[in-house]
Amino acid sequence: MYTNEQLNAIYGSKIGIEFEFFANEGMDEVKRSLSQALNKQIRVEEKAHSEFTPSDEIFKLEPDNSGGSGMIELVTGPMPFVESKLIIAKTLKWIRENGSTNERCSIHINVAFDGKKLGPGTNVSSLDIGKFVLNFNEEAVYEAFPNRRDSVYAKSIKFIVPLSGMTQPSPEKRLWKNYMFVTEKYYGVNFSKLPKNYIEFRYLGGKDYEKKYNTILNMTEHFVLSLYESLVDPVYNENDLKILDSLLEKHRSVIESYKTYSAFKTKYPKIKLMVDLNTYDQIVETFYPKMREKIFELLTKAGLNEGLINYDADTGKMQLKNAELMKCFEISGIDIVDCKIQGNIIGCDIFSTELINSSMFECNLFGATDTIDSKIEDSYVSRHVAVKDSYVFGPRGVFSGDMEGGIFRKGRATEFAKFENTEIIEIEKI
């Protein structure tokens, strides 16, 4: 049962919804039928993420082929909570009767508050992200939608790392600005919407989500109350600090080993450092101050605990080899060789590596690399790279690999590219 304050928060919230689904009819008939079912005006847009901003009276329909050719997205404007319940119920009923969903379909819940009803303290743009992350019960969401756990489109927000390996603030001075929290949109919560005074919850979805009205409604209330409580009680209490300590415990060795190479060797005996492939301690110790920031990132953001790191003294670039990183928040700007990774990779050259449920942006993938259930954006994929059940897009990408299943949404492909049972939406042959 909810308290009166909680009920006031729920009924003082404003909810916008984004429904991804497939329809049995064309866009014009979908517009007509949905408009009638919802008693709302609906605009049809030519492309995804159009500039038109929906209101509580005018929604928009637009193509969104991220889940496959023909996938549609219905985007509402923010509405009072009571009205949003009706829209969710009616839209899910319409999808059950006139369409379908698959594992790539999502329903996003955008949450804001009516400041006139609840006061200025509920302005979402003032949210302390750290306070929210520490207190949010993410397990409740994954219990309701277990198929979304470890999804490349709705990854866990429970990832916190200190911004510097040199110092760690004392407990009484801990502020969220001392730590790094998730900001990229493909996490369960998209905090990039804060300047617009709302946040987007991306956890929900999957095949047949249209049959889960009660669960979706319960999760929406969970989102609203979690956000409200973090706004009205922004002070870090002792319990918050205990949670933060538990999340940061695994980084204690990083902080202690940051200053010297000898300390690093003691704390991380399974990670071998080299300079120009040279392992002499005197050489490595000389270059350690230039290496440690990137090493710090690999330890904290990528979860590195075993492997080889080589520093190229001429280019200042590092290579990582023989590492298994299955909970990788982010790797950027290095060469990756003979590794196994699940996570986010940005601006890296990748060789002979197994990539599972990962997201690559502006990367180069070379021979003997296998990519499974992943998202590849604006990247070069060379010959003999195997891509399975993945999503490839981006006008700056070039594809020459072997792709099985999945969706090639948009990009360029050479004569060497091979596709088998792949849904190709827009391709430029080069």
Low-pLDDT segments: 166-174
Query: Approximately what portion of the residues adopt beta-strand conformation?
Result: 25-35%
- Per DSSP E runs of 2 or more residues, the count of β-strands stands at 31
Mean pLDDT: 87
Distance between the termini: 61 Å
Largest sheet: 20 strands, mixed
What gross morphology would you assign? flat
Number of helices: 11
The total number of structural domains is 2
**Relative helix content:** 25-40%
- Going by helix content, strand content and strand pairing, the class is alpha/beta
Structural Rg: 24 Å
Would you mind describing this structure in some detail?
It is a single chain. With 430 residues, the chain is of the alpha/beta class. It has two domains: 240 residues, no CATH class; 178 residues, no CATH class. It is 28% helix and 30% strand. The strands form three sheets. The protein has a 20-stranded mixed sheet that branches. β10 and β11 form a beta hairpin.
Which characteristics define this entry?
430 residues, alpha/beta, 20-stranded mixed β-sheet, 9-stranded mixed β-sheet, 11 helices, 30% strand
Secondary structure: elements and pairs:
Layout: H1 4-11, E1 13-23, H2 27-38, E2 41-44, E3 58-63, E4 71-75, E5 79-80, H3 81-98, E6 99-100, E7 107-113, H4 115-118, H5 129-135, H6 138-144, E8 161-162, E9 179-180, E10 189-190, E11 199-201, H7 213-232, H8 238-248, H9 252-257, H10 261-267, E12 271-275, H11 281-300, E13 307-312, E14 317-321, E15 324-332, E16 335-337, E17 340-346, E18 349-351, E19 354-356, E20 359-361, E21 364-365, E22 370-372, E23 375-377, E24 380-381, E25 386-388, E26 391-393, E27 398-399, E28 402-404, E29 407-413, E30 418-420, E31 423-429
Parallel strand pairs: 2-3, 12-13, 14-16, 15-17, 16-18, 17-19, 17-20, 18-21, 19-22, 20-23, 21-24, 22-25, 23-26, 24-27, 25-28, 26-29, 27-29, 28-30, 29-31
Antiparallel strand pairs: 1-4, 1-5, 1-6, 1-7, 3-4, 7-11, 8-9, 10-11, 13-14
